[in-house]
Amino acid sequence: METAYRQLCEVKDKTRITAEEFEDAISQVLHPQKNVKALTELTLIDRFSKFIEDGLRDGDFGEGRQKHYKVSLGELTRFLTIQHRLKVTPSEFDADDLMDFRQFLFDEYKYVEKHKSLYDMFSARNIPTERRDQNTVATKMKKIQAFFNELIEKGELSASPFIHLGRNKKRTMMRESYDPPVFLLQDEFLKVKDTEVPDTLQETKDAFILQCAFGCRISEFKRLSMDNIAVSDDGVMYIHYLPEKTLRENIARKEIEELSSYGCQESSPGIGRLGALHSINLQS
After folding, report:
1. Which of 117, 214, 229, 259 is 20 to 30 Å from 94 at the Cα level?
2. Smallest Cα–Cα separation from 163: which of 145, 183, 143, 136?
C-alpha cells in the first residue's frame, strides 16, 4: 500500500487522490501482469469517443447522428461513474453489463436525486424525470451495438457482448413497437387542402399539406433539391428520395417513388400524416 501511495503522489496531488484511484494503484503494484492489457487498450469511454470522432471524420455518419452518439456517450459515462467502473475496457464490458446498462436507461430518472452532480450541466428539459419507453431504449442500445460491431470489423474484439445475450434476450432488448399509423382519409385531406385560412395560418397549412404528401424527416426535407424531381411515363412530376432509415436498414436500398398526387389519387386510401407516402404530384 505504501508503494502504491508513493507512486500515486508522484503524479498527483495527494489531497485529490480518490479511493478508486488508490485501489487501482494498489492493484497495479500487486498484479502488474494483470494491468499490462489496460496500458494498451483504451477504456470503453475513450474508445467510444474515438468511434464518434472517427465516424464523423470518415463520413460514416453526419453531424446529426454524431449528436445522438454523444448523448449515448454521456449516458454510458454516467452509468459507469455510478458503478465506479470508468476504467472498464471494451473487452471487459460483457453481456451482464449490457443488461445493467439497459436497465439504467429505463430508470435513469431514479438516479438523478442521488447523483445530482452528474446533471449539473443539464438544462431542466434534458434531465430524466420519468421512465424511458421500450422504443427509446432499444434505439439507444442499437447505437451501442453499432460501436461494438465496429470494433469487431477493425479486429479489436473477437466477439460482441451482444452475441452472448442469447437470441431471446437480444430480440427483447432490440424490439421496437409502434401504434397503428394515424392517417387522413382522402376526403379529409381534400377538406384541409380546400379550406381557406387567414394569411397568418397559410404557411402552417402549406407545411401540413406538404408533410402529408412527403412524410419525410425535417433533415431529409432540407436536403431535397431539383435532383429529387422526376417525371413519370404519364408526364406527372414527382419527388423521389431515399429515406435515412431505408439507407440504414434496407439492404436493397429501394428508392421510394409512390405517385401520390397533391389532390389524392383515387387509388390512395389515405394520406399518411406520419410518413406513409413519400412523394407529391407537382402539377396539382
Report:
1. 117
2. 145
Q: Are 84 and 117 in contact (CB under 8 A)?
A: no
Place of cell 439504467: 104
Name the one residue in this structure whose C-alpha cell is 436497465.
Answer: 103
Q: Considering only 1-15, 26-40, 254-268, which range has the smallest mean pLDDT?
A: 254-268
The reported pLDDT for the residue numbered 53 is 95
**In a 3-state reduction of DSSP, which class is residue 266?**
coil
Query: From the CB of residue 165, how many other CB atoms can be counted at a distance below 10 Å?
Result: 20
Q: Three-state SS string across 178-247, please?
A: CCCCCEEEHHHHHHHHHCCCCHHHHHHHHHHHHHHHHCCCHHHHHHCCHHHEEECCCCCEEECECCHHHH
Nearest to 262 by CA among 204, 192, 203, 202: 192
pTM above 0.90, yes or no: no
CB atoms within 10 A of CB 98: 22
Pair 69, 52: CB distance under 8 Å: yes
What is the grid cell recorded at 82? 455510478
Q: What is the pLDDT of residue 38?
A: 45
pLDDT for 183 equals 80
How far, in whole angstroms, is CA 57 from its chain's centroid? 18
Residue 272, φ and ψ in degrees, nearest 5? -75, 120
